[in-house]
Amino acid sequence: MFNLRFTKDYLLHTLNAKNRHGLHSPFVYRLVDTVVYDLEVKKVYQEIEKLRHGLLNDTRSITLTDLLTGEYSSKKISLVATETLRISKIDQLLYRLAAYLKPVNMLEINACPGITSLYLHYAAPKANFYAWEEHAETFDIAQDTFKKAAVADINLVTGSYEKTLLRLLNALDKLDLVLINCGHEKQIALKYFELCLPKSHEKTMLVFDGIYQNKGMTEAWNKIKAHPKVTVTVDLFWVGLVFFRKGQAREDFKIKF
C-alpha cells in the first residue's frame, strides 16, 4: 500500500509540476533556474560521496536505545546509513541552496549520519552551523563522519529535545536555513515548524524532508503551506521549501526535479 500511494503521489506530482518556464515569480524563477537546475558536477560532491560509500559498507555494529521504551537493540552502521541517508541528488541540491542563500545561522535537526551536514557545511563554511542529533549512538556516527572529513567547526549537539534543542534555539537570535528531519512523523514535523517560527524572518528558508513519505507527512506539509506567516512554498516532491518573504505574492509551487 505504501509503495502504491507513494508512486501515485510521485506520478501526480510529475503531471502537475512545472519546470522553470511559466513561473511568474522572479524569486522562484531565479531559485529554480540558478539552483535547482544547476546540474554541474562539483568536486566537493565526489569527496563527500566517498564518505557516503564508506558508511553504506560499514559492517560495525552499534547498540541503539529506544528513547520511549528504554530497550536496546544492535544494528550495523551500514543499515543505519541506509535508513537515514537521502539520495545524493537531494544532498547536492541542499548544498546549492545553502551556497545560494549564504546563511549566517544554519541548523540541521537530526543530523545522523552526517553526510548532509558536510554538504551544508561546505556550501556555507562561514555560517554558524548547528547540527542536533537526539540519539547518543547515532551522534557518534555523525561525529566519526566529520572526523574522517577533517571538519571541526560544525557544532554537533546531542541530548533530549527539552535539554538541548530548545536551549540551542533560545540562544540564537535568528535562523536563516533549517533542515528538518522529523522521522516522517506528522506531529513532530509540525512541532519543529512551530519551534522555528519565532526565529524566522523574511530571508529564512525551512526545508522539510520526506513530505510525501506517508499520509501524515503530506497532511503536515499542507498545514504548513496554509500557515499565515508562510508566503512561498516550493514542492520538489522529495523535499519542501518554505519561505517568509515580505511583499511576495502568496503562492505554492510544484517543481519537477
* Integer count of domains: 1
Could you say which structural class the secondary elements and strand pairing correspond to? alpha/beta
- The poorly predicted ranges are none
Number of helices: 10
Indicate the proportion of strand residues.
15-25%
Quick rundown:
The protein is of the alpha/beta class and 257 residues long. Helices cover 46% and strands 18% of the residues. The strands form two sheets. It has an eight-stranded mixed sheet, with helices on both faces.
Can you describe what's shown?
The chain contains ten helices and ten strands. With 257 residues, it is α/β, with parallel strands linked by helices. It has one domain: 3-Layer(aba) Sandwich (Rossmann fold). α5 runs parallel beside α6. It is globular and about 50 Å long. It starts with a helix and ends with a strand.
